[in-house]
Amino acid sequence: MSSNQVEANAERVVSVRDGWVMLVVLLVLLLVDLGLWASDAVRPVFPVIALPIIIVMLAGFFSLQPNEARVLVLFGAYKGTVRKSGFHWGNPFYTNGAGQLGVLGQLADFKATAKGNAPERKPSSRNKISLRARTFNGEKLKVNDKRGNPIEIAAVVVWRVQDTAQAMFDVDNYENYVPIQSESALRHLANQYAYDYGEDNEMTLRSNVQEVSEALRVELEERFAKAGVVVDEARLTHLAYAPEIAQAMLRRQQAEAVIAARQKIVHGAVSMVDMALKELAEKEVVELDNERKAAMVSNLLVVLCGESEVHPVINAGTLYN
Asked: How many helices (H) and strands (E) in the chain?
């Protein structure tokens, strides 16, 4: 059974002619053609044919800013990518971002605008792609963590285009591909970790933010590789329980904090009582039998573990009366 797989494209960096040199050449040709047009020594057939050719060639100029590239496509064939910034001249029939021929596409856009039927696409970008770092600040997502608790989570992703051929031809729209895949990766990540209170040596979303952010970056790179996009940084920007369980989880956190504090207090109190009994026995301050030791332990624990102020009680008799 055969399966159809789309072959990944690879970027090829090419160079085109210098725009200033070609501008001078075309202007000279235009002046010569106009001069021949006005001259009686040459038949007007040649100037008439040459003039539209020169005008068409004038449409081949384009400029690139730093960290900007242009993908060259001629009649459906990928011819390479120009990454060098500056003023350039290329084949005027290279397609624009709209998928039409350079000159013909501009004429089509002009006619549609004149008729009031402006195309929905953006103005002709001539297949230009920005190579600058971009930031995607995702919205808060409501997902379930590893234990099924509903939580709210959001992340910010810093990304940039690395392979212009993949970005242009391997996905339909790489600018829409990035936020959709970012949301999918964030949901998958939240399902793999518990919000908090994990088992021994278990990573959680709240306690291991750096490790979780790194795991998110790795997963995003795997997903973005198909579109020729790399991730410079990915980190969580929001993490909280969903409103419907926030109060219950807050009470749980408070109860666990109280229990932890009580355990520490009791451990300290037992240590102090043990130390007190040992000191009394070693210094022979008083001899205590088991009953008196039990009474002293009880009193000391009450004093050390009680929350209210202690009021001493003076015993006028003995423990046996």
From this structure: 8, 10
